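hey can u check if this looks right to u? its 180 residues, i copy pasted from the old doc so theres a chance i mangled smth
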Amino acid sequence: MSACQTIPSVAVADNASAAAAAKVQAADPAPAPATVAEPKVDAAPPVATSKEEPVSMITPMTERNANIRATGYAVISTQNHRNPAQQRLMAIRASKLDAYRALTEQVYGQQLDATTTVAEMMITSDTFRTRVQGIIYGAVLESITPIGDDTYETTLSLDGRVVNDLRVLYLSQLAAARRR
């Protein structure tokens, strides 16, 4: 027996309505047309077809060809250089790298390691480590904008078709690594 079955629908007349209509016709000798409303029968629920794509963890949650955008930030004064012009250039570079990291998170996801240490029913240590790894190509630099006096913001975008190519490349690399 299969998991999904189609059950044929059969219209069944309401017994009380049919009996009432029969009494009316028997009492009235004149041939009057009897109108009996047939009950509405809902259509059978849709049956799953084999053409539907299986749901998996790697199925994109967004539209397949949707572009993605990422923004990165960097503070000028925290850059390790004495020359203010060099600090600005380093902040621009750092904000661009932060935007690339954000794009990589959106394409490949993020690995999270968490450790919690409990002693005497109290948390003594709570540590989180994240890791992002991947290849990004074809990103378009949309803007590099100074925010206030001490911060740069960089925005990158990535075409949805490139995102799908990157995911396919990543999955094929994972499959090849598992075969070894």
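Strands lie at 68-75, 111-119, 122-131, 140-147, 151-158.
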